[in-house]
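Researcher: Let's do a round of design. I'm pasting the structure tokens now; please hold your answer until I've finished.
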């Protein structure tokens, strides 16, 4: 973990309108300030609904917050006849740093597959956004003991055709589907098993340098009570936090691993 700055990312999902977003970011900024949060030691980001991004940008700029922000999805296209889609160019103009790609809820409810995750990741990178590529197995796959091979196939699909330079920039979030929103956090050992396998795959696909550079997050029912043990694992470089990121005090605690 040493060379990699840990990342704590809050996925708000479809919660918080633009006014609630302002309040939440203000409260989060205060909580982090109270805790004397060192952003060079642990990066903190919030992945907000599209309609919140302008408000979050205004607040972050006005108060010179070190907090970064991101989106929860992006189009694979740059512009044109794609009604309802959001271009990576639009996001980059709003000062967006990160974009979640292939979250399990998008795979499940919107039919997103590895090829689309790959195309969206390339589009994001081409416009200066950092993809947080989400992977992870459902319960039946874990019961069959196939979590590593299943998740690595998703990683392979997401990274297909990416240069080493681009691959070194991405963040990969290992989020077992059975742990998302269920209150059932993976054990640190389970998280490490797959996070370690993802890093080994990056070394195989690219190089040791790329494998060392990429941050691998764990996601799935992370709370302040579970983060410390997860962060002790060698290949867990942070967390993607859903439900608990809606509470600024709790999320700030997670950002200090306690
Ligand atoms: C998520 O949305 O990526 C997530 C991990 O949610 P939760 O923390 O609520 O399980």
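Researcher: That's everything. Go ahead.
Model: Designed sequence:
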């Amino acid at each position: 973990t040493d060379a990699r700055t840990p990342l704590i990312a809050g996925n708000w999902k479809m919660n918080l309108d633009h006014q609630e977003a302002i309040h939440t970011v203000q409260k989060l900024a205060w909580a982090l300030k109270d805790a004397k949060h060192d952003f060079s030691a642990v990066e903190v980001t919030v992945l907000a609904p599209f309609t919140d991004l302008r408000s979050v940008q205004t607040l972050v700029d006005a108060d010179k917050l070190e907090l970064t922000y991101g989106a929860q999805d992006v189009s694979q296209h740059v512009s044109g006849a794609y009604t309802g889609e959001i271009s990576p160019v639009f996001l980059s103009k709003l000062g967006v740093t990160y974009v979640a790609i292939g979250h399990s809820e998008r795979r499940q409810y919107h039919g997103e597959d590895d090829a689309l995750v790959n195309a969206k990741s390339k589009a994001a990178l081409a416009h200066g956004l950092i993809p947080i590529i989400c992977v992870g197995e459902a319960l039946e796959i874990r019961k069959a003991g196939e979590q590593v091979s299943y998740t690595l196939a998703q990683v392979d699909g997401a990274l297909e055709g990416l240069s080493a330079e681009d691959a070194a920039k991405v963040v990969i979030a290992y989020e077992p589907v059975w742990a998302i929103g269920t209150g059932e956090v993976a054990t640190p050992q389970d998280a490490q098993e797959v996070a370690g396998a993802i890093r080994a795959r990056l070394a195989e696909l690219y190089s040791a340098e790329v494998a060392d550079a990429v941050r691998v997050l764990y996601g799935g029912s992370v709370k302040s009570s579970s983060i410390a043990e997860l962060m002790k694992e060698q290949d867990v470089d942070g967390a993607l936090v859903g439900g608990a990121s809606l509470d600024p005090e709790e999320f700030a605690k997670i950002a200090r691993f306690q």
